[in-house]
What does this fold into?
Amino acid sequence: MERSSVYIHPSANVSSQALIGDGTKIWHEAQVREGATIGTSCILGKGVYVDSGVRIGSNVKIQNRVSVYHGVTIDDGVFVGPHVCFTNDKLPRAITPDGRLKRDDDWIVGNTVVKRGASLGAHSVILPDVTIGEFAMVGCGSVVTRDVPGFGLVVGNPARLVGFVCPCGSSLKSRGTSDDPVAMVCPQCGAEQLIPASHYARLP
It folds into this structure.
């Protein structure tokens, strides 16, 4: 395919069978496997690994040494911090019970979706079969084992919901009503977000 508007560092290994959008930059020692799809105006930092079949939207920033394995979909505008690791097997084994090295058909790929505008902090680990909602934020070093609601802020191991954040990144404050959805406002930019009461009830 034509890649005249794509920057690929000479040390990167990008399959000719990967689809790379205009304006995307792929830096030192990154590897992009066959069948991967990367949108426009993305930045992949040093040592990023993108597995076969991975789908990445546009305007995505993936920092150094991130591992994005088969089964992961990353929507537009997502930030992935340094050393984040996506996993895709809840029951990982190198061998079968009879001692044979596992093949591709010996396990089931878990699927993970990171929705538009979400941010994943450095060194966080994302287990398979979870969805991280729009503009959610995962704290550094967290281990995500369950779905994260849109605008949710999660931290810890396992990651737990501790608040909600604005698209600008600041913590949202409740207006103090018991409505459903719960109206929350950003003290930084003044934007209001409506959070389903079922999600708000998960706060400690």
